[in-house]
Amino acid sequence: MEKLYDAGNARAIGVSNFSTKRLGDLLVVARVRPAVNQVECHPGWQHTKLHNFCQSTGIHLSAYSPLGSPGTPWMNSNVLEEPVITLIANKLGKTPAQVALCWNIQMGHSILPKSLNEERIKQNLDVHDWSIPDDLLAMLTEIKQVRLFRGDFTINPQSVYKTLEELWDGEV
Ligand SMILES: NC(=O)c1ccc[n+]([C@@H]2O[C@H](COP(=O)([O-])OP(=O)(O)OC[C@H]3O[C@@H](n4cnc5c(N)ncnc54)[C@H](OP(=O)(O)O)[C@@H]3O)[C@@H](O)[C@H]2O)c1
Could you tell me which residue ranges the NADP-dependent oxidoreductase domain spans (predicted)? Predict the structure, then answer.
């Protein structure tokens, strides 16, 4: 990637699913600092340690599955049904999805929501000209933190990763 960057074929280098440790290890050897790290991030998996590291090193955090990927059959979690999110949504006259997206924006992250539904796409775009007040924003820290994209399929005796702790460098 650095060679492509040097040749002018890439304007920036991005990484994905890098833990705080892996990003730190990369910074030790990288000539070209990654511009962005794309990771799972939503109110139910806030990635506080990684967020702080990215802020302190000037690496942008981009949030995939910012709605917590509702409807994914193998995930028995629905971030949008968290009582604190629905409470804030009701107070602000917004939808739970908009509250989840706005939280990420207020954290300084970009968001990658996905929808096949026109109304929800419009709803998901309407998150830039309002904000969650600080007192309500603080309530979102109460949500139990659960990584949804755990990567269990990569854990097996042949894999270099023998446990989820190893895969995510303890950030599970
Ligand atoms: N880098 C990586 O390793 C990685 C991993 C996972 C995902 N991603 C990327 O992240 C993006 C989004 O991920 P994702 O699809 O897992 O999660 P997501 O955007 O959090 O959730 C998408 C789901 O939310 C529903 N939805 C969208 N807007 C909604 C709204 N306003 N209210 C209620 N439900 C709503 C969608 O259904 P409808 O279509 O019916 O609206 C869809 O089922 C994708 O582009 C994906 O490629 C990257």
Answer: 1-143
Full residue range of the structural domain in which residue 97 is found: 2-166
**CA distances (Å), 71 to each of 74, 81, 114, in order?**
9, 12, 12
Does residue 65 have its Cβ closer than 6 Å to ligand 1?
Answer: yes
> Which tens digit of pLDDT belongs to each residue from 28-55?
999 999 999 999 999 999 999 999 999 9
Instruction: Note whether 80 and 120 are within 8 A (CB).
Output: no
Q: Is the CB of 148 under 6 A from ligand 1?
A: no
Extract the runs of DSSP E, i.e. beta strands, from the chain.
Answer: 14-16, 36-40, 60-64, 110-112
- Our count of domains for the chain comes to 1
Question: Taking the model in full, what pTM does it have?
Answer: 0.94
Ligand 1 site, residue 113, Cβ cutoff 6 A: yes
Atom of ligand 1 nearest to the CA of 120: 31
171 occurs within a structural domain: no
- With respect to residue 30, please indicate whether it lies within any of the assigned structural domains: yes
